[in-house]
Structure formats: C-alpha cells, structure tokens
Specification:
13 helices; mainly alpha
Length: 304
C-alpha cells in the first residue's frame, strides 16, 4: 500500500488531473475571448510566473548561446500548439478534441524512432497501428456527429506540432536548463501570440467575466507553471516512462468531465476510438512487456 501512495504517484495523479480538466475549462472560456488573445495571455502570464520563481538561477539561461533553441521551442510548443488547440476548441467538444490531441504520444514514438534513433519494437509498431485506427474512428465521429472538418484537422495538427516540439526538446535537452526552457518558450510564444492576436482580433471582444478569468487564471497557474514543473521534476527524477504511460488517462478524464459537467455527447464511436487510443498510447509507452523484447532478441540470436 505504501508503494501506491508515493510522492511520484501523487505527482503523476495531480499532473494528469490538471491536464485532463484543462480541456473542458478552456472549452468554457474560449467563447468569451478571441482564441489567439486567450492563448497568448495564458501562455505569457504562465511563462512570466514561472520565470519569477526561477529568477535566482537566471545564470542558467545563457541567452547568447541558446536563444535560437528557446525560439524554436516556443514556435512548436507554444505558438503553434496553443494556437491550434485554442482555435480548435471552438469547433469540437473538449473531450473529443483531447482524444485527437493525445494521439501525440503515438506520433512521438514514431518521430523518436525516425529522428532520435530510439528503439522500435513489434509492440510499439502494433500500438502505432491501433492508435491510427482509433484516430480514424474518432475523426469519423467529429466529421459526422459534429460536422467539423476544421476541428478534426486542428486537433491532429495540434498533436503533430506537439510531438515535433517534444522531439526537439529531447534533442537539445542537454544544452539548456529544462525549467528555463519551459519559462522562456511560453513567455516568448505568448508574446508572439498576443502580437498576432492584436493584428487579427479585437481586445474589445474579450468578455472579462468570471468564466473567462477562471480559464485564464487556471491556464496561467495550474495549466502551465505547476503542470510543467511537476512534469520536468518527474522526468529529471527518472520517471519519464511513467509519465508517458500515465498520459492515457488525460483524454479519459477530459471525456468524463465533458460528459458529466458540460453535457457533451458520449457516442459509441467516440468511446471505441478513445479505448483504442488509450491502448495504443499504453503499448507505445509501456515497459510492461519487456518479455516481448526479450523474446525478439532470443529469436534474432537463434536465427543468426
């Protein structure tokens, strides 16, 4: 029982809960503000808040050496990721959209194999195929039930740029401080989103009511600084594989909260696609099937 209630498991549970409820919360807040301004505000405030807490270790920034890395990471992980998913929530229910976005761990497994040289086992390959089928089923739900081609495309684009962003962070991770990477990518990206939003959207269109302020406050505190500090703390502690396998809970929580509190429909195709995506993410990220890898190694030795 003590192994179950550890700090690591507590941190993982808090992380997936924050990520899981964030989609319905943002879904409620988006109609009260132009999407790019909303995305920019919460990214900029979240990045600045984290930067304030890291001020004492500002010598780790090394701006002259690493400025390009911060800017590239900001492009993928903030400007494109936040931009696509905030606009996309205007077209699809939060739960369904989160299922599309959390195809990202499956794409990440594929990109890590292609560009980082990580191992691709038979289990991971099957997991990728299952995830692809699950996304097709969920996309059909978005196209037929909600009649939103734009929503489905934006959901898949969000997953795609997020996976690219994580691969890039993994590639340059040894050159930069992980916490300052998060703080600066959100600060820089939030600033770019606000400039873009100001150019194409109207600040007067923001309805500064309780729902919008709650969504903004949640994103600028729990959604960015708290969630990503927990994430990188767990990764630095050697818990990356656990974090990866636990992400399958995020779309489950999002769908459950959306159905229970927002009245979002839980169709058969959504549930079926969700289960396949969950299975896929678990298979791609799990270390629970090492016996399969060992069996493959045994066969290769036998054949040689």
């Amino acid at each position: 029982m003590n192994r179950l209630f550890t700090k690591t498991n507590g941190g993982l549970l808090l992380l997936v809960c924050i990520w899981g409820i964030s989609w319905p919360i943002y879904k409620l807040a988006v109609p009260h503000s132009p999407p790019l301004l909303f995305a920019g505000l919460r990214a900029l405030f979240g990045g600045l808040l984290l930067a304030v807490t890291l001020y004492k270790i500002r010598n780790k920034i090394k701006w002259r050496t690493n400025w390009s890395k911060y800017c590239i990471s900001a492009l993928f992980n903030t400007v494109l990721f936040f931009g696509f998913h905030t606009v996309g929530l205007m077209y699809l229910p939060g739960g369904l959209f989160s299922v599309l976005v959390y195809f990202q761990p499956v794409l990440l497994g594929l990109f890590a194999w292609l560009w980082l040289g990580e191992n691709m086992t038979a289990l991971k390959l099957v997991g990728l195929l299952i995830g692809f089928i699950g996304i097709i089923i969920v996309s059909i739900d978005g196209l037929i039930v909600h009649i939103s081609v734009i929503g489905v495309v934006l959901g898949l684009l969000t997953a795609f740029v997020w996976a690219l962003g994580v691969v890039y962070i993994k590639k340059v991770g040894n050159d930069v401080d992980a916490y300052w990477m998060v703080a600066l990518q959100f600060t820089i990206g939030g600033f770019v989103l606000l400039i873009t939003g100001t150019s194409f959207e109207s600040w007067a269109a923001i309805n500064w009511n309780g729902i919008f302020l709650f969504g903004l406050g949640f994103g600028a505190t729990m959604g960015i600084p708290v969630a990503y500090v927990i994430y990188y703390t767990l990764v630095k502690a050697g818990e990356a594989s656990k974090v990866g396998s636990f992400t399958f809970l995020v779309p489950v929580i999002s769908v459950f909260v959306g159905v229970l509190f927002l009245g979002e429909p839980a169709t058969f195709t959504l549930i079926a696609g969700l289960l396949l995506v969950v299975l896929s993410i678990y298979m791609v990220n799990s270390n629970g099937y090492k016996w399969i890898d060992n069996y493959e190694k045994y066969l290769s030795k036998f054949r040689s």
